[in-house]
Write a structure and sequence with these properties.
single chain, 280 residues, Rossmann fold, two-stranded parallel sheet, 9 strands, globular
Length: 280
């Protein structure tokens, strides 16, 4: 599928109201794609729509944990545009807390958004993407994991669990569809530090002993994050064009990938120093 044209391809994107989701919408629209965009932030979604101008796109305010709404959005977009060529499951959130101090409802909310929302997005989109792939040649299922889907990080047990789960789901789906639907490209994306609102909006419940309770983790993250949403989106779209199964975003993601492979039992001694103790 190298050299793929996105002209008139219908792509659904969750979390399209800001960050990587908005940047993906603008990037793909510039390449001629037709977009079905969703986010729980209606104001952010309206701003994305405004930035798209007259380029074809529908916007739907929903929470990805509402499976009925998610299914209705996918089915409605397919009906409106006549097909669905791909989905990018991008919506996500985080909570800062050691596992022992993380309230069940906060842990479960992270899992529901970051993992179950991806599962149900795949489940709803797959029949439509299969049909479009058979009729038009090729399609995409893109799931956004994280570098936290490759390594553990203290105070991020919920986020780690959700992003490892996305990785496992996507790897299995990649292997299955390679047999049944080889035209569909299944991609797992591992962003490193991206200048988005995920860290800024993370719910902060508790820290580990010795961590500074007055530290501004969002500000620390902003200093450490080297990749813009636009750069991340360009890397993801390039992966879609090149049919990459795994996409790493940023030098930090590549470094973490190597460290976890070379030192599976002791990577934290090296990565922790590299991250400087920041909440990534």
């Amino acid at each position: 599928m190298t050299g793929t044209s996105f002209e008139n391809r219908v792509i659904a994107i969750t979390g399209a109201g800001s960050g990587i989701g908005r940047a993906l919408a603008l990037n793909l629209a510039d390449k001629g794609a037709v977009l079905a965009l969703a986010d729980r932030d209606g104001d952010g979604l309206a701003e994305t729509k405004r930035l798209l101008g007259n380029r074809p796109a529908s916007v739907t305010t929903l929470d990805v944990t509402d499976t009925a709404a998610l299914e209705a959005w996918i089915d409605g977009a397919t009906s409106e545009f006549g097909r669905l060529d791909g989905i990018i499951n991008n919506a996500g959130l985080s909570v800062v807390a050691p596992f022992a101090d993380c309230p069940r409802e906060d842990f479960d909310r992270v899992m529901a958004v970051n993992f179950t929302g991806v599962v149900e997005g795949c489940r709803a989109a797959l029949p439509h993407v299969r049909a479009a792939s058979a009729a038009h040649g090729g399609g995409w299922i893109v799931n956004i994991s994280s570098v936290f889907g490759m390594m553990g990080y203290p105070t991020q047990s919920a986020y780690n669990a959700s992003k490892y789960a996305v990785r496992g789901l996507t790897e299995a789906l990649h292997l299955e569809l390679a047999v049944t639907d080889p035209g569909i490209t299944v991609i797992r994306v591992h962003p490193g530090g991206i200048k988005t609102n995920v860290a800024k909006n993370a719910k902060r419940v508790a820290l580990l002993p010795g961590q500074d309770p007055n530290a501004d983790f969002a500000a620390e993250f902003e200093k450490a994050a080297k990749t813009t949403p636009e750069q991340a989106a360009a890397t993801i779209v390039d992966g879609m064009i090149r049919r990459r199964h795994r996409v790493l975003i940023g030098a930090d993601a590549r470094f973490i990938d190597w460290m976890t492979r070379l030192f599976p039992d002791s990577y934290w001694k090296r990565i922790g120093a590299f991250l400087g103790g920041r909440d990534r």
